[in-house]
Amino acid sequence: MEADLVLAPVDGSDNAAEAFEYAVAVADRYDAAVHVLFVLGEEMSRRVQDGTIDGEVAAETTVAAVDPILDRLDGTDLESTHSSAYGYSTQRLTQHPGSVITEVADQLGADFVVLPREPVTGDPQAAIEKAAQYVIAHADQPVLSV
User: pTM for this structure?
Assistant: First the structure.
């Protein structure tokens, strides 16, 4: 197997940060780059889309969650990029964290996806806690769910 790009979805949860460690290991093993995808939770997605909060607040939330993750790559030779996406949409009922992750994986041409298989905690920040089963079933790439 060859892999040039590993997609690592995160949502600010501890389980996503732990899964990121596995993404780093996969990327290191295959000398691949890592793309960190921050998936905004349902409440934040809706509030930004309906204008209740400013997009800058969402950007600050993303930076606060992604920077410590990217700091993990300091001292490695791994290349990294990052982006964010709304985990839910008020206009598109079929948009949910699992569909967002598979769409981004396809758009980026990711070769591998690593995400947490989180217990359903009810934490509003844990946007991807129910996405693993969907991604495993629908992704065109190999998926490691930890």
Answer: 0.87
